[in-house]
Amino acid sequence: MTFSKINVNIDVVHLTGFEVVPFLILLTIAGCVGRPLPSKLDDVDKQPLQTSRPYNIAHRGSNGEFPEETAAAYMRAIGEGADFIETEILASKDGVLICSHDVTFDLDNRTNIANFSQFADRKRTYEVQGVNMTGWFVVDFTLEELKLLGVNQRFSFRDQQYNGKFPIITFKEYISIALDAKRVVGIYPEIKNPVFINKHVSDFPCVIIILGSKKIIPTQLIRSNGQMGKKFEDKFVETLMKFAYKGSYMSKEWLKQPAFVQSFAPTSLTYIANLTDLPKIFLIHDVTVLKEDTNQTYYDITSDSYLDFMKNYVVGIGPWKDTIVTTKNNYLNEVTDLVAKAHARGLQVHIFSWCMMSKICEHSQ
Q: What percent of the chain is helix, strand and coil (3-state, nearest 5)?
């Protein structure tokens, strides 16, 4: 790809590192994931989060070097200087929140699940964002079963030597990695595929109030699919609160343990606005993708009226980089007005993502 100088005023970039890593780090990672959670270090001597330049967010960790969203990828990203480590959160069959980009393990051969004969008959077909998909789905496996799997490198042109060597990690393990850093490192978790998760996972714990001989189920625990229990979003926020993540953007509490909550689903963001004051980012994909929860188009959600609505719930937008500067035949093309529209409303712009996603990118490093 040929790069031109284009002036776009952005607040955050999602990056991935590419340095060669000694194999010794494998031993360090193994020790990290196995210990009790959380094992937070003393905050007194920690270097604070830098706030003098745009944040460097490690998108799924340092996934150009290690399989994405593994402890190795996140620890390496912290070592390379990331301000925040980013992840997507899904849920297992038994309601445990885990770090994984995809609801199915078949995409890009993301895990070594095909090597496990006991799971051969567990393939299913589900509708995901309007498309029927067949494969092994995270919602059909307990955490114990998921922990048997090893994560593979997503792209064949990336380093394959660590395939299958690192397990899927939980949301809590991911948080522990950030809290254990010797400086303040923020987290940037995504509420991923909430419509799909809420439809297929019903094992989130819920509280039933008993008065005499009557059981009273709070209305908010009756989900839209008729099942009883907390929503995926409730569990997500409860986990953050358990580990003391709270506070509005740049508040004293937030600076102590920084976190942004991101989602492509606007209804999830408006829902959790009543649960936490942590800053929220409204993710925006390319022009072809509909919102899974509202079926809105790109043009719907980037309209003046909708941005005026969402600014009441979020501190910023997180657009795919091609919606900021379009491309044509692998060349940079035109700058759109999306950044200007966001900044006019006081919204930050967190663009994703600059990383080795194709051989074209690899050759341009």
A: 30, 25, 45
SS3 228: strand
List, in sequence order, every beta strand (DSSP E) within 219-276. 261-263
Phi, psi of 62 (to 5 degrees): -85, 75
Whole-structure pTM value: 0.86
Dihedral of alpha carbons 126, 131, 136, 139, sign: negative
CATH T-level assignment (fold) for domain 12-201+230-363: TIM Barrel (3.20.20)
> pLDDT digit string (tens) for 126-179?
999 999 999 999 999 999 999 999 999 998 889 999 999 999 999 999 999 999
Buried b (16+ CB within 10 A) or exposed e, 88-101: bbbbbbebbbbbbb
* CA 252/CA 250 separation, integer angstroms: 7
Rg, Å, the chain Cα set: 20
In this structure, the number of other CB atoms found within 10 A of the CB of residue 7 comes to 5
User: 64 and 106 in contact (C-beta within 8 Å)?
Assistant: no
Residue tagged 């445990």 (tokens): 96
Sequence-distant (≥ 6) Cβ neighbours of residue 234 within 8 angstroms: 204, 275
DSSP code, position 137 = B
The residue extents of the domains of the chain are: 12-201+230-363
Question: What is the rounded CA–CA span in Å between residue 329 and residue 334?
Answer: 13
